[in-house]
Each structure stands twice: as structure tokens, then as C-alpha cells.
Amino acid sequence: MEGVTKITETQKIIEPSGLIKEFNALGNHPKDIFECIDTNIQDMLERLGTPEKYQEVKQILFNAIKALQKRPKEFTGHYVPSNETKPVLKFLIDSFVNLEKCNFFRKENFDRALKLIEEKNNVLIVQNHTSPMDALVPLAILEKNYGSLPISLIMSQVFEYARVTNLITSGVEKFPVFQPKHINKFRDKPEVINEMSKQNVTSLISLKNHTKEGGKIVFLYPERDRNTNGIGVPEPASMAIPEIMFKSNANLYILPTFVCGMESIFPNSSGRNEMDDFFKIIKRGQGDFYCGEPIKYSDLMEQIESISEEDKSELIKRILTNVPENDRLKEKALISIYLLSLISRLSPNEKMKGLYNNDYVDNLIPKSIV
């Protein structure tokens, strides 16, 4: 391997901080991450028509791998890219995003959000979820228009455990969390659930400390699962994020956004983990980014509180089928539904609005707040 020092057996893998062996065992990992990358990027670059970039791309990824192997074992809940991993994001954007064909709709709304950031408010970007690479087009568009911004992502811990995706996401700042669907896999192993929960708390505390002085942008996906047919079922647990940010010293604003076209870059296949074949699937493409108006979170909560208890329950039932008995979970479900409703209104395609394309939702969530 030209340009790379001799690799020992223990250096052939990437392990996340705070490794949970039982969870790690669920993944489909290459035994030798260097060999996996070397083999796959050669084929990928041939497919893209840029085989001359082989040495450059290999060095970028190999440098990042070696940097990831030096991370502390203790889980901190907050990953910040290093000089060695930052180039990974640029590699992804340059290789797979046709920026000249990407459109940025309602840019003036993001300009307003940026003004709020400059005034030391926090902005939580909520977006639909259609592909594992949903953030790529928005990040590319925002970097093109604004340069470097204080952006971080709330990201599934799955990305940390899958070695290839751990590498691919190493160019972005992120707060990894275990999703309820992953925690539920270990119902019979309380010690694993306790460790997962502990790490989630660590991430939330890190997020709170990160945003307490304001001036930060955070990406959040309120949808439970990726849905290519339209915006689908909300994930109430994700509402811990705005709740934490709202309790910081800075004001919180919600910025609903909608991205489409990600299928042209990274197809979503239901029932399988596309990330196992990342380099074989990803291709050069483009997408569009729609930006709604920033909404003060406290105003959003006032709007939610203004509707009757009967309407709250009916709204939850129509989207989630079952209304949670726990009042706290019921409130989180309602907030998540509201956010996804705001996102749906930005869709240029009526069918992509999914569950939220009905008069009942429109009547309960006035258009005046978007």
C-alpha cells in the first residue's frame, strides 16, 4: 500500500469510543478496513470516470482511518473532526454532488436563520429522512453559499459502529445516539441497555454544553425510519433534542427543511443496510434543498398548547395510530408530528407530503407559523 506505513493486525479495524461488544456484533464489518477501502475505491473511481484520483482519495481515507484509531476509548458524546478527517467531507461533496445542478429554494429563510445565529441564538434544522446520506446535499449547498458554518448533526450510533460509515461521517461534527429501535434489540440484556442509555445521556449533556452559549446549528431528523414514498411516522424520542436545547442559555429557533433527489446519489433500499455496500452504490448526482421560515421554539410550543386535548389526541391517533398513555411521551409525539407537518409543507410534490397531506393537519397547524 503505497504511501502508507506497515499495518499491524490490530490496526486493521476502527472501533468507536465506548465500544459495546454486543451491539458491535450486530454489524457487518470488513476484517481489514484498509483493504476494504483500497479495493472498493478503485472500482468506484473507475465507475465515476476519475481513476486518476486513486492515490489522492486513498491517502485522504487512509489518513482519516489512522486518525480514527487514535480516539479515546471513553465515550464523550461529541465528535469533532480533526485535520485528518475534515477532508473526508470535501471528498464526498467533490466526488458525488453535482453542485451546479443543485437548487436552493427559499434561501432568504436561511439568511434569516444565519442572522439569528450571529445574534447568538441556536437553530435546530429539522429535515425529512429519505437516505442515509440526507445531509450531503444540504451541507454542500450551505458550504457553497456561506462557507464554514457551526453545524453539527444528531446521528445514529449505527454510523459509529459500522466501520465504513464511521469513516465516511468522520468529516462532520456529530452527537451520536442510540435509537429506541436499536435499544429494543437488547430487552433481555439490561446491562447493554444501561450502557446505551448512559451514552445517550452523555451525548445530550455534551449537546447542552455545546449549545449553551448560542450561535450553533444542529441537524435533526424527526422521522423514525427512512421513507422514500413520503414523510412518515415521527420518532417521539428525538424530541429530547429540542427540549435540551430549549433549556440552554440561548433562544432556540426551528428551521424546517426538505431535501429531495438524494436517490440520485445514494439509493435507499428498504429491508437491507445499504451502507454495507456504500462504495458500490454511491454515485454522482444532485438534489434540491427547500428552506422554511425559522420559528421560535417557544412560539411553536404555545401554538401546540392552544389546541384542545381532544384535538391533540386525534392528531396523534391519525399519524401514530395509538395515543401514548404517558403524558410526557404524548407531548413529545405531538411536537414531533408538528415538526414533520412543517417539513411536509415544503415538499414540491404532494405525494411526498405523506401522512401530513390532509385538511385536519392543516386546520390544527396554521400556515401562519410557517
Q: Can I get a quick summary?
A:
The protein has 370 residues and is of the alpha/beta class. Helices cover 44% and strands 11% of the residues. It is globular.
Kindly describe this structure.
- The protein has 370 residues and is α/β, with parallel strands linked by helices.
- The chain has one domain: Glycerol-3-phosphate (1)-acyltransferase (3-Layer(aba) Sandwich).
- Helix content is 44%, strand content 11%.
- Strands 1, 2, 3, 4, 5, 6, 7 and 8 form an 8-stranded mixed β-sheet that branches.
- α3 packs antiparallel against α4 and α10 packs parallel to α11.
- The relative contact order is 0.14.
- The N terminus is likely disordered.
CATH fold assignment: Glycerol-3-phosphate (1)-acyltransferase
User: What percentage of the residues does DSSP assign to strands (E)?
Assistant: 5-15%
Structural class: alpha/beta
Overall form: globular
Number of helices: 16
Q: Which percent bin holds the helix content? A: 40-55%
Give the second-level CATH assignment, the architecture. 3-Layer(aba) Sandwich
Integer-rounded radius of gyration: 21 Å
Mind telling me the CATH superfamily name? Glycerol-3-phosphate (1)-acyltransferase
Which stretches are poorly predicted, pLDDT < 50 over at least 5 residues? 1-8
Please write the string of helix (H) and strand (E) elements: HHHHEHEHEHHEHHEHEHEEHHHH
Could you give a short account of the major beta sheet?
8 strands, mixed
First CA to last CA: what distance? 54 Å
Number of strands: 8
Q: What is the count of structural domains?
A: 1
CATH class: Alpha Beta
| Mean model confidence by pLDDT | 90
